Structure formats: structure tokens, C-alpha cells
Amino acid sequence: MEVDDRVISISDFNLSYLLLAQRMILSHDAEAMFRLGVSQEVAEIIGGLSAAQLVKLARTNILLCAFRFDNHSLLATLANGSPQHDLQQMHMAILLSAHPLDSIN
After folding, report:
1. What are the strands, taking DSSP E only, across 16-75?
2. pLDDT computed for residue 1 by the predictor
3. Which of the following CATH numbers is that of domain 3-97: 1.10.4000.10, 3.40.50.920, 3.40.50.1110, 1.20.1740.10?
4. Which residues contact 63 (CB under 8 A, 6 or more apart)?
5. DSSP state of 15
6. Where are its TM segments located (predicted)?
7. How far apart are CA 1 and CA 79, in angstroms?
8. Which residues share a beta bridge with 87?
9. Predicted structure pTM score
């Protein structure tokens, strides 16, 4: 894959992510903030962007979403291959909710 192809792929991914995030925020903002891991201020900004602003923001070579698993043991435990049960999903949600929300400071 050429560098230009990667940049285009990142830009496409960013646009998909922003469209999904905005749809989630406009549908149910509190749930969206929890699932996306963003603060209320960030959610308000994303929710208020026009289509042109979303496209402009997506056109970057940097992923706009962040990988939330910065704990090796947590990631290894979740990826162990066993089927997830409702309690495992709840446990993962509790662990992820303990991480601080991103802010726009």
C-alpha cells in the first residue's frame, strides 16, 4: 500500500468515524459520550458540525479516534478468544469508564 493510499484510507476512516459519532451524539448524547470516550464539550462540537466541516476535519493523515486500550493486561484478557458473556461486556465497560475523558483544553 502506497503512502497516498494510506492517507486516503485514514481520511475515509475519519469521515466514517465522525459521521457515526455525530449520529450517536444527536441520537443520545450521554450514551455517545460514554461509548466514544469524549467530554461533553467535544460531543457538542462534533454534534454541531456541518457536513462540509466534517469532511474538512476528516481530511488529515492522523486518525481522529483513539485506541482506548493502553493497558496490555486488559487487552490480553479481552482478546483471549473466549466468547464474551454479558458480565464480561459489563466488566469491560466499567474498566473503560474509569479512563478519563478526552477534553479540548
Report:
1. none
2. 65
3. 1.10.4000.10
4. 10, 13, 14
5. H
6. none
7. 27
8. none
9. 0.71
